Amino acid sequence: QKNNANEPEFLQAAQEILESLELIVEKRPDIEQNRILERFLEPERFIQFRVAWLNDKNEVQVNRGYRVQYNSAIGPYKGGIRFHPSVNASIIKFLGLEQILKNSLTTLPMGGGKGGSNFDPKGKSDAEIMRFCQAFMTELYRHIGPDTDVPAGDIGVGGREVGYLFGQYKRIRDEFTGTLTGKGLAFGGSLARTQATGYGVCYFTQEALKTMKGETFQGKTVAVSGAGNVAIYAIEKAQQLGAKVVTCSDSNGWIYDPEGIDVELLKEVKEVKRARLTEYAKERKSAEYHEKKNGEHGVWNYKVDIALPCATQNELNLDDAKALVKNGVQIVCEGANMPTTLEAAHYFIDNGIIYGPGKAANAGGVATSGLEMCQNSARLSWTFEEVDAKLKGIMEGIFHNAHDTAVKYGVKENDLLTGANIAGFEKVCNAMIAEGVF
Ligand code: NDP
């Protein structure tokens, strides 16, 4: 606590994890003997650097860059890069800590890392985005590599940004390796990576519904938040599986579309035009657009069976959780990282709602990045169907691992949070003990 007092998001993530791990710490004295929890919470390395670049008016701009190389016990550091004005050390550390457990749950050999900058991509020209990415990589390149640390995208970093980052890495290092994932298909990217996180959330949700309720997506109503990469493909897959998704949002407002979100129109607005959701509402007669006021989230106030938060941290609080439960929600699975506050997560679990935390439910993105690393190492590429089938298998496996662990440790079976934390931690902990003290 006292070493990280000004890092609320990091403390929130650490508290949530430590609460769950009490159950395994009681059973395994070697965790305490090896001081694994203290070592687990302390990043192996935290890098902070200056990113100076020129805007289109040739004015010098200065931002701050970060990379946390959190834990390499089970593989090279792996985790996305976020460009958003809210990025600071606390956010990078919370994301890195979550990433360790998430990567472990995928069953692939990947350690945990995360990075980013307080750079705001909104309103920047394509040339400015390129110059910023090049400046960012001009420092980051010395810390990463295909067997050391493999970054990817996150909020504000999609295919375009990964392309510029990869181009600069290749230029400086004079090597063509899979040092970043989420690359374009022409230069080592994997089919299905763009869809992976959103599709993965739905595969996880589908397996949970089938196992715990004997149900499917067919005929269900779904609330989604966000309108970025994760949200778009969660909406697409949920609708393919027979559900109707009635909401999406961005940081200014939200859409309620009782006919179901038109995902092709949403892609056109967000991926092609890079416009706001007001554009979607203009084109779609059945859609209502609501401006966000006083920090309200909006999308959690409708009658739905399934809720998939896919925007950002702490976007679903206790009041939202109460509204969802009152409106009959059965399952909440997180596409975003830590979108649900700790008290809201407890409220879901205490009220019998199936709660799939991000580190389990959104692991499909990094899992497919792991598959991109495999393809890059072998210098070949798999078909969309092959990657999608592997993704589905991994997501089903993650659900069962979290569920079985919850049952094994005697907590409620809908408490996939405890299940995921313990299952992800155990493998990392065993590797840390086996590799000796450092
Ligand atoms: P994008 O940048 O593509 O989209 C982010 C979406 O969330 C946008 O609609 C954005 O709205 C909204 N948003 C972002 N920050 C805020 C904020 N502070 N308040 C309100 N809305 C906000 O990012 P992704 O879809 O890639 O990421 C979404 C979440 O999923 C993040 O938590 C990320 O860490 C997580 N995630 C992503 C993975 C991936 O593969 N992409 C993998 C695993 C997790 P606006 O445009 O207005 O900013």
From TrEMBL:
NAD(+) binds at residues 197, 229. SMART domains: ELFV_dehydrog. The keyword Protease does not apply. The record marks 154 as: Important for catalysis. GO terms for biological process: glutamate biosynthetic process. One of its GO terms (molecular function) is glutamate dehydrogenase (NADP+) activity. Residues 190-436 form the Glutamate/phenylalanine/leucine/valine/L-tryptophan dehydrogenase C-terminal domain. Substrate binds at residues 78, 99, 102, 153, 369. The active site is at 114 (proton donor). InterPro entries: Aminoacid_DH-like_N_sf (IPR046346), Glu/Leu/Phe/Val/Trp_DH (IPR006095), Glu/Leu/Phe/Val/Trp_DH_C (IPR006096), Glu/Leu/Phe/Val/Trp_DH_dimer (IPR006097), Glu/Leu/Phe/Val_DH_AS (IPR033524), Glu_DH (IPR014362), Glu_Leu_Phe_Val_DH (IPR050724), NAD(P)-bd_dom_sf (IPR036291). Keywords: NAD, Nucleotide-binding, Oxidoreductase. One of its GO terms (cellular component) is cytosol. Pfam families: ELFV_dehydrog, ELFV_dehydrog_N. Belongs to the Glu/Leu/Phe/Val dehydrogenases family. Homohexamer. This is Glutamate dehydrogenase. It comes from Anaeroplasma bactoclasticum.
